[in-house]
Structures are given as C-alpha cells and as structure tokens.
Design brief:
About 65% of the residues lie in helices and about 0% in strands. It is built from nine helices and no strands. It is rod-shaped and about 95 Å long.
Length: about 210
Amino acid sequence: MGSTTGAGSLSSTNRKDAGAVGTADTSETTKDLPTLMRAISEGDQVAFARLYDQVASRVFGLALRIVRDRAIAEEVTQDVFLQVWRQAGEVDPSKGSAMGWLLTLTHRRAVDRVRSEQAQSDRLHRYESLHTTPAYDSTSEEAVGRIEAGRVQKALALVGEPHRTTVELAYFSGLTHREVAQRLDIPLGTAKTRIRDGLRKLRAQMNGGEEK
C-alpha cells in the first residue's frame, strides 16, 4: 500500500481520549462506510484516507479503553487499519454494519494485545523466579535440616577435621562454598569435597556411626 494522506499516524484531532469518543453525531459517517469499504477493496487510497479520518478516533478510543495505554492503543489502531486495507472486501452489509465490523475487529485486536502483554509479563516473572541466585550454596543441606540442632552438634564433634570446620562454616555460619574456600585458604573444589564428605560422615554418625 502506498503513502496515504491522513492514514500514516493518528493526527492530533483524531487522538482523543476514550471518554470523548462517540460524543459527536456519527450518522453521516456510518452512512458512507459501505461505499468507502467497497472502494478500499478495489485499492482506492483516497477512500482509505477518508475512512481513516472519519472513524480513527472511535477505533482508537475503543482500543484505549481496553489496553489502557496510549502508545499500545495507537499500535492497535494502526493494525486495525492495515487489516481494513487488506480485508475491506470481506465486509458483508447483510451480516452487519461496516462500523460494527470495524469495532469488532478493534476489540479483538486490543484483547489479543492485552493477552500478549500479560503472557510476556508472566514469562518474565517465571524467568526471574528460575534465575534468582540463592543466598548461599548448598550441597546436601536438607540432610542437616531434618535433624535437631543439639543432635547435630554432638554428631559433628565426632566427624573430625578437616570436615568438621568446613561443615560448620557452610551450614552454621551461612558461608558460601567460595567463602569457605577463602576462609580456609583452600581451592574451591577442595572445599566442596570436604563439605560433601563431611555431611556424609555426619549422616553416618547420626545413623549409629557407620558410613553408608
């Protein structure tokens, strides 16, 4: 579609708030719509520009009431008129008015846009939830969480070094694996191994002193 006067963007006179839509007498406008639609279906750009000037404010107003965002409402309005240019020939006066077809199309486009925006927001929320970094690293912290603090301390005393200190720093001081490694001046991999082995030894003590 080539450049069309009045149809490139919402003009200042057409960009009305939803509350102002429908206050003017539109009887003359709606009477001309079937003729304009037929002309548009034959590629008449002048007819398209006239249609845009006559009904853009109503289309924009309906879109704005649904999406509640002026920028998005303008995008919906442009989408609607692009579809009008492509599908004006599908308007059947025997099945309803041209204005009714336009507003139905606007409503569908606006609702689809709201759903799209909501879906995007939901996807972002899920992404953030999945990629939130925990406060500290954990290897097998649930093993400790099930045991009363007093019994753990007694069993931990029997674990022996160097595992006891690494477990204490990781699970009772709340240090990350990297912080444990820095505190003890050992490689990170060594810290992780000692914590894992220390927890295994701790579980063994809690189970009667035999490692499993």
